[in-house]
C-alpha cells in the first residue's frame, strides 16, 4: 500500500490530461511531471549551447528549450540536437520558416503560436513539417504578448483573455487534425497565471506546461515560482514545468525539482532535512549542510538524509530518513541508519562518513530496484 493511500492528506489528484510526447519524454496522462529549462546562450554558439544543455541534463532536466530566432540558429540547432542527451524544444516566434527548419533539424517540439505565423497556408506547412518529423508543439500564451483584438476586447491582460487566446490557437491545430500539443498560459503575476491555468485546465484536456514567466532573480524568482506553481501542482494541475529565473539554467532545474519534491510529485537525489541551528547545536549545521549539498550532488537515487544539530529534534527526524546524523556532546554525534541509532562518529570525520553512508545506501536502493525490475520482467 502506498504512503499516500494511508495518508490521504498527503495525496494530490492530478488532472486527467491526454498524453503527448516530446521526443521520448511522455508529457501528460500518468507520466511523471517533467522538468524543463531553456538555454541562455546565443544558439549559433553551438559549443556553448551544447555545454549548457549537457549541464542542465546532468542536473536532471528532462527537456531543454533553445531559441531559434534566425536561419543560422536553425542550422546550429541541428548540431545541438545531435549532441543532446535530452529532447530539444525549438522556441519560435512569428517566423513560420523557422518552425519548418526546426522540425527538419530534429527538434522534438516547437514552441510556436499558430495564430501568429501568418495565413492558413503557412500554418498548414508548419503542421505538416511537425507531423512529418514526429514533432509536437507547445502553444505558449503569455500575458505580456496577448493579441491586440483580445486586449481591445478585455481592456487588459486577464485570465479570460489568456484562455481565449489559447483556445484560438488550439482551434487552428485541431482544425488541421493536429493533437500533439501542450499549452502554457504564463504571466509574471502569480494570481493571473494561476487563474489562467485553472481556466484552461477546465476548457481542454491537453497537457499543461506550467511557468511563472519573468519570475525574477534566484531568490525572488524561486519563491514566486514555488508559490505560483506550487499552488497549481497541489491542486493537480500541471504536466511539465519550467522555472524561469534570471540565473543559470542549472539552477532552474534544481528549483523545479525542489518544488516537485516538496509536493512528493517527483523524487531525485538526496532530500536533506536539516534544522536552522541554534545555540544548542553540537556541530556547525549550516556549514555541514552546505558541504554535504555539494558532496552529494552526484547522487541521483531518491533518498533522505537528516542533519540535525541536537537531540531536541534529531532522533524524531532521523526516524523518517534513510541516513541521519544528530549532534551530541563532546565533539561527536549519533549516526542513524534506516531510522535507528547505529553508531557514533566524531564531528571531524562526520562529513566524509555521511557521504560514504549515503553512497552505500544509494547503491543498496539501486540494487534492490534492479532486482525488482528483473523479477517483474520475468
Ligand atoms: S534541532 Fe537543536 S540545534 Fe537544531 S534548531 Fe532545534 S534546538 Fe537548535
From TrEMBL:
Give the Enzyme Commission number.
1.17.7.3
Q: In which pathway does it act?
A: Isoprenoid biosynthesis; isopentenyl diphosphate biosynthesis via DXP pathway; isopentenyl diphosphate from 1-deoxy-D-xylulose 5-phosphate: step 5/6
Q: Where does [4Fe-4S] cluster bind?
A: 275, 278, 310, 317
| Entry's cofactor comment | Binds 1 [4Fe-4S] cluster.
Could you tell me which residue ranges the IspG TIM-barrel domain spans?
17-257
Location of the IspG C-terminal domain: 271-360
Lipid biosynthesis among keywords:
no
Cofactor dependence is on: [4Fe-4S] cluster
Reactions this protein catalyses: (2E)-4-hydroxy-3-methylbut-2-enyl diphosphate + oxidized [flavodoxin] + H2O + 2 H(+) = 2-C-methyl-D-erythritol 2,4-cyclic diphosphate + reduced [flavodoxin]
Q: Which Gene3D superfamilies match?
A: Dihydropteroate synthase-like, Sulfite Reductase Hemoprotein, domain 1
Tell whether Iron is among the UniProt keywords.
yes
Tell me the superkingdom of the source. Bacteria
| GO terms under biological process | isopentenyl diphosphate biosynthetic process, methylerythritol 4-phosphate pathway; terpenoid biosynthetic process
* Coiled-coil annotated spans: none
Q: Which UniProt keywords apply?
A: 4Fe-4S, Iron, Iron-sulfur, Isoprene biosynthesis, Metal-binding, Oxidoreductase
Q: Which family does it belong to?
A: Belongs to the IspG family.
Cross-referenced NCBIfam families: ispG_gcpE, PRK00366.1
What's this protein's function? Answer: Converts 2C-methyl-D-erythritol 2,4-cyclodiphosphate (ME-2,4cPP) into 1-hydroxy-2-methyl-2-(E)-butenyl 4-diphosphate.
> What name goes with this protein?
4-hydroxy-3-methylbut-2-en-1-yl diphosphate synthase (flavodoxin)
Name the gene for this chain: ispG
Amino acid at each position: 500500500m502506498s504512503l499516500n493511500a494511508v495518508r490521504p492528506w498527503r495525496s494530490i489528484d492530478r488532472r486527467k490530461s491526454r498524453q503527448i510526447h516530446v521526443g521520448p519524454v511522455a508529457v501528460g496522462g500518468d507520466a511523471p511531471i517533467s522538468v524543463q529549462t531553456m538555454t541562455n546562450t546565443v544558439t549559433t554558439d553551438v559549443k556553448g549551447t551544447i555545454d549548457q544543455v549537457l549541464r542542465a541534463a546532468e542536473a536532471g532536466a528532462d527537456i531543454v528549450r533553445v531559441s531559434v530566432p534566425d536561419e543560422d540558429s536553425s542550422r546550429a540547432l541541428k548540431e545541438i540536437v545531435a549532441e543532446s542527451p535530452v529532447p530539444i524544444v525549438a522556441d519560435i516566434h512569428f517566423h513560420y520558416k523557422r518552425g519548418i527548419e526546426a522540425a527538419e533539424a530534429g527538434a522534438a517540439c516547437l514552441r510556436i503560436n499558430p495564430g501568429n505565423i501568418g495565413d492558413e497556408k503557412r500554418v498548414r506547412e508548419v503542421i505538416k513539417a511537425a507531423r512529418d518529423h514526429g514533432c509536437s508543439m507547445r502553444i505558449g500564451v503569455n500575458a505580456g504578448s496577448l493579441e491586440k483584438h483580445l486586449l481591445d476586447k478585455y481592456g487588459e491582460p486577464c485570465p479570460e483573455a489568456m484562455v481565449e487566446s489559447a483556445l484560438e490557437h488550439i482551434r487552428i491545430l485541431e482544425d488541421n487534425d493536429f493533437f500533439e500539443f501542450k499549452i502554457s498560459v504564463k504571466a509574471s503575476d502569480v494570481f493571473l497565471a494561476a487563474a489562467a491555468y485553472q481556466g484552461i485546465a477546465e476548457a481542454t484536456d491537453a497537457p499543461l506546461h506550467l511557468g511563472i514567466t519573468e519570475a525574477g532573480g534566484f531568490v525572488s524568482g524561486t519563491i514566486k515560482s514555488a508559490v505560483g506553481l506550487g499552488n497549481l501542482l497541489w491542486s493537480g494541475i500541471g504536466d511539465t514545468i519550467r522555472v524561469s529565473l534570471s540565473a543559470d539554467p542549472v539552477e532552474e532545474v534544481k528549483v523545479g525539482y525542489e518544488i516537485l519534491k516538496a509536493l512528493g510529485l517527483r523524487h531525485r537525489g538526496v532530500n536533506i532535512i536539516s534544522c536552522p541551528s541554534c545555540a544548542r547545536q553540537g556541530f556547525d549545521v549550516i556549514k555541514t549542510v552546505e558541504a554535504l549539498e555539494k558532496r552529494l550532488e552526484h547522487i541521483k537515487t531518491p533518498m533522505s538524509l537528516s542533519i540535525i544539530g541536537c537531540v531536541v529534534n534529531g532522533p524524531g527526524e532521523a526516524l523518517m530518513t534513510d541516513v541521519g546524523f544528530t549532534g551530541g556532546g563532546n565533539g561527536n554525534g549519533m549516526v542513524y541508519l534506516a531510522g535507528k541509532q547505529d553508531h557514533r562518529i566524531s564531528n571531524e570525520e562526520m562529513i566524509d562518513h555521511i557521504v560514504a553512508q549515503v553512497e552505500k545506501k544509494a547503491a543498496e536502493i539501486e540494487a534492490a530496484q534492479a532486482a525488482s525490475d528483473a523479477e517483474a520482467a520475468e
